[in-house]
Amino acid sequence: MKAIFFLIGLSFLISCESDDNLRRNPNLLNINVNYEVNLSLPQFNNLNFSGNSVYIPGQGNLGLIIVNSGSSYLAWDAADPNLVPNECSRLIIDGLNAASICDEPPNSYSLITGQPLVENLRYPLFAYRITESGGVLRIFN
Q: Taking the model in full, what pTM does it have?
């Protein structure tokens, strides 16, 4: 009887997968990000309103895109996850979507779900963790 419980427990442990395996993308580097956004500063004023987003250069692979979805804040790497980072693979914000200009038609993604809006794209946007406290957002991985 103990052997049956042991085998069942072992099968559950083996079948578990960490989110690191789900987040692995060979096109993007795993760059340490730890950035704070003070929502009272003028350059981040758009984030105080639902449906707006802001691009922050110099973080992650090709910058960060921070989005106010209306119910929460989201943080994405600004590099197209289906291309090796280069000059044309930085995502350009277009409302609640973003696209890179390397290919025609461009690779485009939802800034709410992170999912591709074009067929045959393997990877969704690379998400960062985000917390809010006292009008300050902390973006990290």
A: 0.82
